[in-house]
Amino acid sequence: MTNTEIPAVRPSRPAPAPATGAGTAPPSARDRGTRLLATLFLAPTVVGIVVFTVVPIVGSIVLSLFHWNVIDSPSWAGAANYREVFTDSTVLVSFRNTLVFMVLAVALQLLVALTLALAVNGRMPVWLRSVFRSAFFFPLVLSAASISVVMKYLFNQDFGVVNWALGLIGIAPVPWLTSENSAMAAVILVYVWQQFGFSFLLFVGGLNNIPKEIHEAASLDGATGLRKHLHVTLPLLSPTLLVATVVGVINALQVFEQPYVLTDGGPGDSTRTVVMVIYESAFEQLRFGEASAVGVLLFVLIMAVTALQFRLSRRFVHYQ
Amino acid sequence: MTDSHVTRRTLLRYGAYGAGAAALAGTAASWDRLTGADIPGRDDGSLVVATLGPAYGPEAIRTLTEGFKKVHPDIKLRINAVQATDWSDFFAKILTQIAAGTAPDLVYVATEGVQLFAQRLGVALDKWVQRDAAELREYFADVHPSLVESMMYEGSLYQLPVEFNAADMYLNSQVLKRAGAGFPAADWTRDDFTELLRDMKKSSGSQFTPYFWTNRLWGGVVPWLFANGTNLLAESKAPGGAWLWDGFYPSAERRGRGGGFRWTTPQATDARVEESYDYLASLIQEDLCTRPEGGNGQNLIGVFSTGRVGVTPAGGFWAGGLHLAGMRPGSFDVQYFPRWRTQRMQFGAAGYALLRTSKMQDEAWEFIKFAARRDTLMRLFETNQTTPARRSMLTADRYREMGPRHWQVFYDTLDKFPDTGPIPAPPQVAEVEQVLLKHTGTALSSRRSVGPALRRMQSDLEKAMEREV
Q: SS3 for B310?
């Protein structure tokens, strides 16, 4: 929030003095009514968060300490599931793949989204701007699984349209999804194509919030296109960049549909991600304890990466 | 003068009370929907049968429910068609239902899950089969013993097979003609097969792939392992089963039968396994077949029916599929899998498994018998979406309109090659299949990759087989 903004909530009267225990006046009937009202409004959301987020997280942590195959009763495992996870090469590879995927996919997604946002924000008729906004956002509202099924056809080495088109210009068929060298790249391309619309919209909103006067002043000082963007636009867009990066990273660390449908984690383990391992361990191999342990580790990883981002944001994000 | 205006705060308060009351009333009114209590047949004492959704459309469900009602009006039946992409996905959903305390009484289970269900969840049918032997004699006389044996586990029978599919070879007639090749002989060899692929490749454009296969337990690498006289896991027979063979099959047909298959020690580094992988890698290098990850059933019918693929392994289910895709009876045909060291072929079968948690086991047995009846299967398998387990149902009439010309191949795969067997599916099948898929992909990236990938496969298979499910 800039210092020129009006606070979103204006107290209509002085706030009550903080309670210090002895000697404080009991809340009036009006205050009690207000609190009750606030509680009533907040209750559905709080209940939803507790039931659908907190309870499953606690449940997963508890389950990660047991062996459970759905059929028999759970048996105590202690740290055995974690030991198993840390010695399982497939799990370790999946963490590495997920981190590689996160770095490349988020970087590409932000780059594409920012470039297109700057282009669309330039001199362009309003109607055309709307067309582009809708077109870029459209893939995001489609089902990732459906998109991946279609993309699997397009990228098929032997019968896919992509290789057919490349053949027209004399390029030999590329084993998009069947080579360890290109499968991850293909998965990232599909993922970015679907996801960049969200960052794009954030950037368009952020760019619209940058006062024109600042750009005009920069122009008067002799700043030209690229320099203006580097030294004016990007610093002023940094809060938006932070949001886009945090959301992008959290989503990328949980990627599942695209690699699952496109490559099923292959060739070998080259595109197997952490969430795929969780799904396979739990629902295919009936090892719910180990799957929960992997889930807990992923939760810790996401928390750590997000905390690191906010820590770094103190240095790189400018709010005015 | 008093102010009769309602304050904003009061309005909000009563609004909140109203909204809360409305939410509570709405929840109460829709409680049955929220808890699933309004689903017909739920918690009303119905016999619940879980089937694989994509294979059981509304018509099939109607056939089963109405047919069963005529025979057993006293038993309420509910068919729960579970939507799933494949058998492992289907089993995962069934296990989730079991974990949630809403286990069905019966589950439609294919070879992939027979031993998992038998070991952990199923009830042996032995006592009922022996009790109703007179009634079942006609059924067993009509069903090949290999199919029945594939449904046995450690001496007991867990399912009555109602359908199966063997991995035979489908050929596109138009592609054969283009290559100037004739329809292969029943005893064709692996070398004949390779030559045919080369002829097809020579006579077609760059957008053509002679051989298309899917990377999975059924119809992928495993049929080649069978043809080469080996298997992914050491195969043996459990003792027992004499009670069934002696009671229902003549001596010639019960020779060598046991109490079901055992798949134990992994043998991915066996010389013949490596040789089979080498062969497939050479086909890929010669551009005669698809890479394993490229092959999947979703687009196979399309590319085969349009002549962009010449040969692919499939079962009787494909006859119906190709007909639906618009192929005429003469435009495709089917032959046995080619001979290598042997001509042993691979099949997968399916039937209904009775769960231990069922409180209606006698009623469930009545449904199992009903589902295996000839008249039931005739109505259920009208469109050739599978190969019926009953030999008598495979007639010229059935395949006249759809093809293929050599339809006898479907059942003769069992009759003429009695050692034809089920896919290797121990209780740890999910992990075994995942290991197979993963390492097959890397093994076939080049001929040099075969050895190292198979060594890794062996190590992973050993780990998988050590684990208790």
A: strand
